[in-house]
């Protein structure tokens, strides 16, 4: 059995073609359509935390995962109302030392500068029943850091976020999808229960919870492609072909 876990970044107006990383923006209307489409088919959208019994194979159901990388404010203001309307939950992966800042890691790539959630906005996300996950402290590529610095980025971001929400942070996301086996070990030993990657494909129940595959949803994902991604082996084939 396999479970589709969707990977989003920003839910906002799509920038013009002059900007890089525009594909990581999905407009509100498209996101609303995608969630409504799956709801009408009897699917339930769940955060990684809420999906864990399904991922472990303890229970079955018509479910899919919803994840947002980086912690953009537009996830709260544009995505949350749609999630709440359908009684869905989602995981947002926050860069713990960048709260209230912007996606400064993209500043050299001509990407649109977008605000990240502030502390009080993160709490609103959490208090709405959604999951707070970790995306390191500074959004560094782990493979470019020393073992010690990578360990601090992984474990200290967990601590940072736990001080804010007052409960355990169990889900992790590798920045840029870049990691070595040693980083998987650090994530595990830091007390996380799962980690998501950028490897394309559906999650096979019972496989490695620290290398969870996801399905990227971009501004180029039409309704037809969305159905392909959800209901066929399209993404699994893409993952094998590209290795991403």
Describe the structure.
The chain has a single domain, classed as TIM Barrel (Alpha-Beta Barrel). It is α/β, with parallel strands linked by helices and 244 residues long. It contains 8 helices and 12 strands. 41% of the residues are buried. The mean pLDDT is 95. The two termini are 22 Å apart. Helix content is 36%, strand content 19%. β9, α6 and β10 form a beta-alpha-beta unit. Strands 2, 5, 6, 7, 8, 9, 10 and 12 form an 8-stranded parallel sheet that branches. Strands 1-11 form a two-stranded antiparallel sheet. It has a two-stranded parallel ribbon with strand order 3-4. The radius of gyration is 17 Å and the shape is globular.
- Structural classification: alpha/beta
| CATH fold title | TIM Barrel
- Domains counted in the coordinates: how many? 1
What's the CATH superfamily, by name?
Glycoside hydrolase/deacetylase
Let me know the number of strands.
12
User: What is the overall silhouette?
Assistant: globular
Give the strand content.
15-25%
Summed up, the helix count is 8
What is the CATH C-level name? Alpha Beta
How many strands, which pairing sense, and closed or not: the largest β-sheet?
A: 8 strands, parallel
How many angstroms separate the termini?
22 Å
